[in-house]
UniProtKB/TrEMBL annotation:
Entry similarity comment: Belongs to the bacterial solute-binding protein 2 family.
A molecular-function term among this protein's GO annotations: carbohydrate binding
UniProt keywords, alphabetically: Signal
Claim: Signal is one of the keywords in the record: yes
InterPro entries assigned to the protein according to its UniProt record, in alphabetical order: Peripla_BP_I, SBP_2_dom
Organism: Thalassospira profundimaris
All residue ranges annotated as the Periplasmic binding protein domain in the record: 26-286
A GO term from the CC aspect: cell envelope
Subcellular location: Cell envelope
Pfam family, one: Peripla_BP_4
Secretion signal span: 1-21
Domain of life: Bacteria
Statement: the UniProt record of this protein carries the keyword Signal: yes
Protein name (record): LacI family transcriptional regulator
Length: 313
């Protein structure tokens, strides 16, 4: 990923004869608006936009994370509105590349958050803000091994196959487990980031594997569905359960012992720093090509500490 000045982008625009953006709108487009995780991104973006003079913000996302075509259309519409910049959480690493390229060709800076684009799009955005998902997955795997041991059977409840965050997060978890234990992995199962589907999948997995020693839910709706299935099956406290993200439902599961831990991303920081990075680009400042927004492993022991409260939502 290159460190680019917005001026370089506009130089290219001048060469191609395409008119540059003239709006004062910064468009924030996320994978879905139906998740508390993305609403926390919204809160961070709102905080940052409130400190910028002369700019306004729009916030959009499809009804579900699997509605990729809807997100593509939202980016296209933002380009057509000649927005000043775009903060984008791509729901598919390949499908959003043509739209991000079009933004680049129109002199509109793009900051990617949460999930990476494929390498085909690496020259068309100016910064990527994310949790280091691979390290976050490894952190969850390490906690799993510490709680479960190195033998037995564990399950992986994932979300959308092929999404950048999922590849890193579940890949990091899986590789660490394989390299550091003899644990047998069941799955992964893909919920499409739908809580009800995750609940049903987890119910089936628990029924089919009564000897399961641990289970990992890799994003917010998946982990919530997983937690509810554990409770409904009467399995609370009988297996090690680790989730991802940190809304009130998941915090409650940690507090009552349904989940042993949750890995919580800096979702607020993604929105806040996403807007701040666009603002720097609009001023012509240099920005880092990758900005790590961090992750905190939250357990019952540290749930009420400032470190955890700063990322929970």
């Amino acid at each position: 990923m290159k460190k680019l000045l917005l001026g370089a982008v506009f130089a290219l625009v001048g060469m191609t004869g395409i008119a540059a953006a003239q709006s004062n709108e910064i468009a924030v487009i996320v994978k879905t608006t139906s998740s508390n995780y993305w609403q926390n991104v919204h809160k961070g973006a709102e905080s940052a936009i409130g400190k910028l003079d002369g700019y306004k913000m729009s916030f959009q996302g499809p009804a579900t994370e699997s509605a990729v075509a809807d997100e593509v259309n939202m980016v296209q519409n933002a380009i057509n509105r000649k927005v000043a910049g775009i903060v984008l959480a791509p729901s598919d690493p390949d499908a959003l590349v043509p739209s991000v390229k079009k933004a680049y060709e129109n002199g509109i800076p793009v900051v990617i958050i949460d999930s990476a684009l494929s390498d085909a799009g690496k020259d068309y955005y100016q910064a990527f803000l994310s949790t280091d998902n691979r390290k976050a997955g490894e952190l969850c795997a390490k906690q799993m091994i510490e709680k479960v041991g190195t033998t037995g059977k564990i399950a992986i409840m994932s979300y959308v196959a092929g999404v950048g965050s999922e590849i890193g997060r579940v890949g990091g978890f899986t590789d660490y487990i394989k390299a550091n234990s003899k644990l047998e992995i069941v799955g992964p199962f893909y919920s499409e980031s739908q809580m009800a589907k995750a609940l049903n999948q987890t119910t089936d997995v628990l029924a089919a594997n009564p000897d399961l020693k641990g289970i990992f839910g890799a994003n917010e709706p998946t982990a919530i569905g997983m937690g509810r299935a554990i409770v409904q099956a009467g399995k609370k406290g009988q297996l090690v359960a680790i989730g991802f993200d940190g809304n009130e439902d998941l915090q409650g599961f940690v507090r009552d012992g349904t989940l042993d831990a949750i890995a919580v991303q800096g979702s607020y920081q993604m929105g806040e720093k996403g807007i701040e990075t666009i603002a720097k680009l609009l001023k012509g400042d240099k920005v880092d090509s990758f900005i790590n927004t961090g992750v905190v492993l939250v357990t019952k022991d540290n749930l009420d500490t400032p470190e955890a409260q700063n990322v929970l939502y």
